[in-house]
Structure formats: structure tokens, C-alpha cells
Design goal:
- It is a single chain.
- The chain has 720 residues and is of the alpha/beta class.
- The chain folds into five domains: 197 residues, P-loop containing nucleotide triphosphate hydrolases (Rossmann fold); 193 residues, Rossmann fold, CATH 3.40.50.300; 100 residues, Arc Repressor Mutant, subunit A (Orthogonal Bundle); 73 residues, HRDC domain (DNA polymerase, domain 1); 108 residues, Orthogonal Bundle (Arc Repressor Mutant, subunit A).
- Strands 3-4-2-5-6-1-7 form a seven-stranded parallel sheet, with helices on both faces. A six-stranded parallel sheet has the order 8-13-12-9-11-10, sandwiched between helices. Strands 14-17 form a two-stranded antiparallel sheet.
- The chain starts with a helix and ends with a helix.
- Strand 3, helix 5 and strand 4 form a beta-alpha-beta unit.
- It contains 35 helices and 17 strands.
């Protein structure tokens, strides 16, 4: 059976033990020569759906892709796996182009990657007409639909190209297609609906968060400082913004490069290569960057400015966490960005295009302003119902449930000011009036003479903007997104007449992080770093990105199983026969050398480390890390743990009678010296073993983190 052969190829070539969701069903369908549409999220394994059939079919598989970077990346990885693939595009020298044509003619290539424009050239068509073509693959198939966010007219012509290859099965793949776009693709390509395979759009390992944009550079800086040595992308709206942000970060010694259409081809290519080879950690880019970049270890994506639509947003965050490990996706949301996008939409001459773009933008704004689980509007946009109460991986689901307070008076002040200014102005101007600003605009409009001028000084600018957002969500205000002006709704007028109360929150949400993975296996972090260095050394010698050798997930499993023979290595995720032969010896020797230096490491028969010893001594490594740390925040970021976890291990350490310098803990706590003395006296009186009686003793006014810190300091100072 062909599916048995497909499973053999999955392990021997790609190094995977089992198919992921829908892959097996899709591959069966393609092998049966049934035209197939595959909707699968970025990182979901779309490529295998045509690459495995391509290695089984007798003839050629043509892969149509819109970007040179995508083709180069795929061909590079396939070649490393021992699969024969070539590319025809403008990046090749004449000699390379002719060499690839020769390989195709001699039937030595199983896959040909090509752009639609190159495919439709007479020269290419003449070349392919003499060959057996078994499969026509259309990647990024949403480009076919004018309702897609990245419509390309040349993609529409692919429907006619199909007739040139009547024996070939057609496979269309995309990660971003709304139900409307899906229908457009199937209708254009004349596919049967029974051959449409739709995987869940939910990327469970992406932590989604939207933060009100007030000081974007400081907000970004705070985010980056907690993610040292992590790989990430920062998307900006304009080239100018990219250059400014790059210069600021570069000045602060971040490992960063810019990427936009204003740079030369050579510069863009160089910056992209530095990034994918892990020589540079951060790329600041316009949306020109990233399509088809299969770098698996991108740990964060920041949207410094608002994207144009949900498809773009979803595709861009999809570049994070492709290795399956958790990644952070931060969107800085400001109303000024909406006005910028609207301006560019208004420049479109085609009325239908303007209407579609406005609808796309409004859908994105609704997502950004959503107060419940973020996966609900995001997945719903793509026609998928998400019914979990709490995803555990977005800001709305993970933030502490604050008690709502009565903000009716604040609402009445704000709404009254909106009415008195004629409902012509945005939130920033209203806030300036309420806070008594002497800005040029306030004075020019004579708004300093209004009765609402200066009546809102009790709140900061940020608090008022946070409140205004809640007024919009609660529908007591509505916003004209085209002009930015605020208007009071009927519900808002009831608030003004004191017929309705308003409850909300005064504190703006802070930037948070993705929860740490609960990996099934304990892995040795020191060995993992050594294996990363070995991978980088090999990759640099071969001029490859490190992930082409092995992804992080493979190295993590090596650092968990300590493979000291090639037999042990072949069972590890991502190690196929070709890579075993090429790199197996180097990695097995690295592991063996590490174990020689660490005779104390005890392992189970399958190579995994004995967990008991590691658990009992875990507090020692935390204490060691604490002693070398410069701040608690930095330490938590490096260890990727919560404060409570660190405090638990430090408490175990001091209970053993060992001493710590408690200055870092004193910096972390908000307790005064007097408060600490009071807590110490309670410990003297009722003991410190259980904290709940102490919590009650202070009428629950001191939180548990502060009590934990106080207890560690108390025991530490008792040790001699």
C-alpha cells in the first residue's frame, strides 16, 4: 500500500514517528490523484502533504510559490534530507539555472519550485510539456482570491495552467483562508468540496496579547529585556519606523537588523541570512519580511503598529513557535494607527477594494478590543467555533480577575466633555481637556473655557485612555474609525442622566509572558546549550541555518535522552536516516563527552536521566542562579519560571541551613522595614512553617509572594 510507503518515508527521510492532524488523510487523497485543498495553520505541517507524495510519484511535482525566499528555504531543507528538489527563479546564476534544467530533463529532480510568472513563461512550459508531471502544488493558495489579504492576479491564471497537465493532481495549500476565500479557491480551481481538508486554525502554543499603545518604544524595551538571547520579529507599518526603531535598539546594543523594501536586495538577503542562521536575534521589519521563512525557533513576534487585517496578523504571528514550543505574540494597539491605515485605504481607486479593506480593518479592531478569550474572535473569523472557557494562552484568560469598581463618575465626566466639544474629537483631546492641558489645540479651540476643563486630574493620561477604551467596549461611546471622533450612544446618555451605573477597571493590563511548557521530559539545559553550539559549528561550516541540521525540539530530546549510540539517536524526533548518517556521529560524541565530564549523572535504561536525584537537588541550581543574578526579574526571565517557583526553591535552600545575600529579595519586595519587622515578630510568635495563619493575622493585606520573601529572609538571617 502507498500509505505504508508514505509512513516509511515519514520516518526514514523526515525523522518523524507519526503523522500530525490531517496529514495522513490528505496524503491518501493526493496519492489517489484527487484534487485537494488543504487549509492548515502555519507550522501545522502543510509541506509534508505534497512532499511525501512527490517522493512516491514516478513523475515530477511542480510547486508554485510566490516568494524566492520560500523556495530557497524549502529546497535547502529537502536537499539536506536527501530528497531531490530544484528551483527555477531569478536568484540563480545562468550556470545554476541551466544545471537545474538539466536535472529536470534527466528526471533526477522529484520536485521543482517555481513562481507563477516563471511557470507561465513559454520556455518553462516547453520544458515541462515533454515530461511526466504527476502533481501540481499551489502554495499560498489564498493569493488566488480577490477576497484574500494578498491577492495576486497571476495566481488566477493557474486554473488554466492545470489544463496543460491533465494527468497531474492539483494540491492547493494555505494557512489563512476565511470561508469566503475557501469558496473562491475551490470555485476558481474547480475543486470538489468533498476534497477540502480544514485543520483547526488554533495555534495552541502562541500566547496572544494586546496592550494599549502609549509609549511603544518603552513598552517594546521592557518586553525585550525579559527575553535576552531569544529570536524574534518586530513588525512596523513603515520603512521610516523600521529604521528609527532599529537605530534605537542597535544603540542599546541589541542584536538587531532592519528589513524593508527600501534596502537593496543584497542588504535584505544578508540581514535575512544573519537572522535565520542565529547570528542576529531580532529583525525589525515591514510586512515585506517573513513569508516563507521556516525558522522554527522564533520565540516572539511584536506588532509595533497595527496590521491591516486579521489574515496578515495571523500569518505574521504564525512565524513564531513553529517548533511547537511556546512563543509570545504582542500587539501594541493605538487608535492613531487606525487613522493611518484608513488614509491608505482611501487612496485605493477601486470602490470594491476600499470596501473590502475597511471590513478587514474593522474585523481586526474588534479582535483587539475583545475582552473575552482572544481565540474566540480570531478563530471565528476563519469560520471555526472556539468554545473553551479559558484557553490559558492569552492575556484575557490569564490575567488576574480584578474586582470591578464603580467608574460612573469618571464616565459622566468623559461623556459630558465629548458632548460639550460637539462630538468632533478623539480620546486624546478629550483627556487633555479633562486633565487641564495647555496644549496648542486645547487653547486654539478655546476648550480651556469649558466647564469640563481640568475636572479629571485625579487620573493619569494613561488611566483616562484605559477608561475610554472600556467606555467603547461597554457601548456608552462609539467611535468613527474613519475620522477618530467619539460620539455618545443612547446607552451613554442614560449614564449622563444617572439612569445607569458603569463598572470597570482603573488599572491597565501589563505585558505578560507565555506560560512555561510542561515538557514530558526533563532535559539537561547545560547539555542543550552545548548541542546548540555543536549544531551552529556544523551549520556555519556548511553555510546552512542551524535548524536545517536539527530543530531545537530535536536537541531538547537529545538533552533528555543522552543518546550515546546511533541506535539511540535514530529514535529521536527529527532524526532521519540521511541526517543520522551525516551528523549522528558528531552529536553522539558530544553527548558521550559531556557524560564523561559529569559522572554523577545517572540515567534510566532508555537514556533519560533519573528524575529523583534531579528533583532533590533542583534547589541548588536555583540558589546558584540567584547568587549570580543582577535582578529577580532578569533571573525569572532567564529561568523562564514564575516568582513562586523561585521562592519555593530558595526557601528549601535556606531551610538546609545555607546562607544567601538577601539584597535582591529586599529589592523585589514592596514591604517596608517596619512591615518586615512586624512579620518577623509574628513568625516568632506563631511560627513560619505555614503562611496562611500569617496571612490571616494581617487581615489578608499582605500578599503571599511578599510573605514568601519575608519568610526566606527570616530563615536566612537565622542561619549562622
Amino acid at each position: 500500500m502507498m500509505i505504508t510507503k508514505a509512513k516509511d518515508i515519514l520516518k526514514s527521510v523526515f525523522g518523524y514517528s507519526e503523522f500530525r492532524t490531517l496529514q495522513e488523510e490528505v496524503i491518501k487523497n493526493v496519492l489517489a490523484k484527487r484534487d485537494t485543498l488543504v487549509i492548515m495553520p502555519t507550522g501545522g505541517g502543510k509541506s509534508l502533504c505534497y512532499q511525501i507524495p512527490a517522493l512516491i510519484f514516478d513523475g515530477l511535482t511542480i510547486v508554485i510559490s510566490p516568494l524566492i525566499s520560500l523556495m530557497k528555504d524549502q529546497v535547502e531543507q529537502l536537499t539536506e534530507l536527501g530528497a531531490s528538489a530544484v528551483v527555477l527563479n531569478s536568484s540563480l546564476s545562468p550556470a545554476e539555472y541551466e544545471e537545474n534544467i538539466k536535472l529536470i530533463k534527466e528526471k533526477k529532480a522529484k520536485m521543482l519550485y517555481v513562481a507563477p510568472e516563471t511557470l507561465m513563461m513559454e520556455r518553462t512550459m516547453n520544458l515541462l510539456s515533454s515530461l511526466k508531471v504527476d502533481c501540481l502544488t499551489i502554495d499560498e493558495a489564498h493569493c488566488i482570491s480577490e477576497w484574500g489579504h494578498d491577492f495576486r492576479p497571476e495566481y488566477r491564471q493557474l486554473a488554466d495552467v492545470r489544463s496543460r497537465f491533465p494527468e497531474a493532481v492539483t494540491v492547493a495549500l494555505t494557512a489563512t483562508a476565511t470561508p469566503r476565500v475557501q469558496q473562491d479557491i475551490t470555485r476558481t480551481l474547480r475543486f470538489s468540496e468533498s476534497n477540502v481538508f480544514i485543520a483547526s486554525f488554533n495555534r495552541e502554543n502562541l500566547f496572544l496579547q494586546v496592550i494599549r499603545k502609549n509609549d511603544p518604544f518603552e513598552q517594546t524595551l521592557k518586553f525585550l529585556k525579559k527575553r535576552e538571547n531569544q529570536s524574534g520579529i518586530i513588525y512596523c507599518f513603515s520603512r521610516k519606523q523600521v529604521d528609527e526603531l532599529y537605530e534605537q535598539l542597535h544603540y542599546l546594543k541589541f542584536s538587531v537588523r532592519p528589513y524593508h523594501a527600501g534596502l537593496s536586495d543584497a542588504q535584505r538577503k544578508r540581514h535575512q541570512e544573519l537572522f535565520i542562521k542565529d547570528d542576529v536575534q531580532i529583525i525589525v521589519a515591514t510586512i515585506a519580511f517573513g513569508m516563507g521563512i521556516n525558522k522554527p525557533n522564533v520565540r516572539f513576534v511584536i506588532h509595533y503598529d497595527l496590521p491591516k487585517n486579521i489574515e496578515s496578523y495571523y500569518q505574521e504571528i504564525g512565524r513564531a513557535g513553529r517548533d511547537g514550543l511556546n512563543a509570545d505574540c504582542l500587539l501594541l494597539f493605538g487608535y492613531g494607527d487606525i487613522a493611518k491605515i484608513n488614509y491608505f485605504i482611501d487612496q485605493k481607486e477601486n470602490e470594491k477594494e476600499r470596501r473590502i479593506a475597511k471590513q478587514h480593518l474593522n474585523d481586526l479592531i474588534n479582535y483587539a478590543e475583545f475582552y473575552d478569550c482572544r481565540r474566540k474572535p480570531l478563530l471565528n473569523y476563519f469560520g471555526e467555533n472556539y468554545d473553551k472557557e479559558n484557553c490559558g494562552m492569552c492575556d484575557n484568560c490569564t490575567k488576574p480577575k480584578e474586582e470591578l469598581v464603580d467608574i460612573t463618575i469618571a464616565a459622566q465626566k468623559f461623556l459630558s466633555c465629548v458632548v460639550r466639544t460637539g462630538e468632533y474629537f478623539g480620546a486624546m483631546h478629550i483627556v487633555d481637556i479633562l486633565r487641564g492641558s495647555k496644549s496648542q489645540k486645547v487653547l486654539e479651540k478655546r476648550h480651556d473655557a469649558l466647564s469640563t476643563y481640568g475636572i479629571g486630574k485625579e487620573y493619569s493620561k494613561e488611566q483616562w485612555l484605559h477608561l475610554s477604551h472600556q467606555f467603547l467596549v461597554k457601548n456608552i461611546l462609539k467611535k468613527d474609525y474613519e475620522f477618530g471622533s467619539l460620539k455618545v450612544t443612547e446607552k451613554g446618555r442614560e449614564v449622563l442622566r444617572s439612569k445607569k451605573k458603569v463598572f470597570g477597571k482603573l488599572k491597565e493590563a501589563e505585558i505578560s509572558s507565555a506560560p512555561k511548557e510542561s515538557l514530558d521530559l526533563f532535559y539537561d539545559k547545560e547539555l542543550f546549550e552545548i548541542l546548540r553550539l555543536k549544531r551552529k559549528e556544523i551549520a556555519d561550516r556548511l553555510h546552512f541555518p542551524p535548524y536545517v541540521i536539527f530543530p531545537d525540539k530535536t536537541l531538547i530530546e537529545m538533552a533528555a535522552r543522552y543518546p550515546t549510540s546511533t541506535d539511540m539517536l535514530i529514535s529521536i524526533h527529527g532524526v532521519g536516516a540521511v541526517k543520522l548518517k551525516k551528523y549522528g556521529k558528531a552529536f553522539v560524541e558530544t553527548v558521550a563527552g559531556y557524560l564523561e565530564k559529569h559522572p554523577e549523572i545517572q540515567t534510566n535504561p532508555d537514556g533519560t536521566r533519573l528524575k529523583l536525584r534531579k528533583k532533590s537537588l533542583a534547589y541548588l541550581s536555583y540558589a546558584k542562579a540567584y547568587k549570580n543574578a543582577k535582578s529577580i526579574n532578569k533571573l525569572l526571565s532567564e529561568l523562564n519560571v514564575k516568582l513562586s517557583t523561585l521562592l519555593k526553591h530558595l526557601y528549601t535552600y535556606v531551610l538546609e541551613g545555607k546562607r544567601l545575600d538577601d539584597s535582591l529579595l529586599l529589592n523585589e519586595t514592596s514591604l517596608s522595614k517596619d512591615e518586615l519587622k512586624k512579620i518577623f515578630s509574628v513568625f516568632d510568635r506563631i511560627g513560619f512553617e505555614a503562611l496562611s495563619p500569617v496571612f490571616e493575622e494581617f487581615n489578608k493585606s499582605i500578599d503571599y509572594d511578599n510573605l514568601h520573601i519575608a519568610r526566606i529572609i527570616y530563615v536566612n538571617r537565622s542561619n549562622k
